[in-house]
Design brief:
Elements (H helix, E strand, L loop, with lengths): L6 H5 L18 H16 L1 H4 L4 H12 L8 H41 L5 E3 L5 E6 L11 E10 L4 E4 H4 L3 E4 L5 H7 L7 E6 L20 E10 L1
């Protein structure tokens, strides 16, 4: 069975049109436990889609469809309602994104301004900051090189969003395949060295961010150990 449960599949499982339901626990009937589990997974796997909905009205719609009852709204009315709801949700998401981008940009600028004053921190013309933790003695990579590295990436609040150290598995990639701040930082290193990069958002993932872990205009910190230049 696919991990994401479709709404169309869910409809055939819902047989009640009422929102109020008995408390479910390990002593409930297997049918009740299965029904609850299906509903929970449906909600969890579609959390972004149903967030903000009137759940009582939502379950009325599910129940009507499951029991083959005529809908309270015409297809056109339902289509218009869903279109308008989507527009409103997208507008709210955009506003939230823009507000978070402003906060992250302000916090990142303040962090980098203070960080630049610390001993051993070097700021390049692009705005990248780096600090050599352990000097290497081998070859330095170029833009066209491929490298093997261990790394840990985190936000300025300390939140770790990726770590090859934690996976105990070094990463292999081309220098020109990573964000520009990371690529520039790699070229300051030599094999066997370890450096901490402080990457402004403009040299990272910018106003878009990356997934749920890296928000818009996030300043990034990477501890990088250069194992091999290919």
């Amino acid at each position: 069975m696919k991990k994401t449960l479709s709404l169309s599949l869910a409809l055939v499982w819902f047989t009640s049109t009422t929102w109020a339901a008995p408390s479910i626990n390990a002593k409930s009937s297997m049918n009740d436990q299965a029904s609850y589990s299906f509903g929970f997974l449906l909600g969890k796997n579609n959390i972004d889609a149903i967030k903000g909905l009137n759940l009582e009205a939502f379950t009325q719609g599910l129940g009507a469809a499951a029991n083959n009852q005529p809908p309270a709204l015409s297809e056109q009315q339902m289509g218009n309602a869903l279109t308008e709801y989507k527009k409103q949700a997208e507008a709210r998401d955009l506003q939230t994104h823009q507000q978070q981008a402003q906060v992250n940009a302000k916090n990142g600028a303040a962090f980098l301004a203070e960080n630049a004053k610390k001993p051993g921190v070097i700021t390049t013309a692009s705005g990248l900051q780096y600090q050599v933790l352990k000097a290497g003695t081998g070859t330095s990579p170029k833009k066209t090189s491929s490298v093997t590295v261990n790394y840990e990436g985190r936000l300025i609040d300390g939140t770790v969003f990726d770590s090859s150290f934690a996976r105990q598995q070094p990463a292999d990639f081309a220098v020109n395949q990573v964000v520009s701040g990371f690529a520039e930082g790699l070229q300051t290193m030599k094999e066997g060295g370890k450096t901490r990069f402080f990457i402004p958002a403009k040299l990272g993932y910018g106003e878009i961010g990356a997934g749920d872990a890296i928000g818009p205009n996030s300043t990034l910190i990477f501890d990088v150990e250069l194992l091999k230049v290919k």
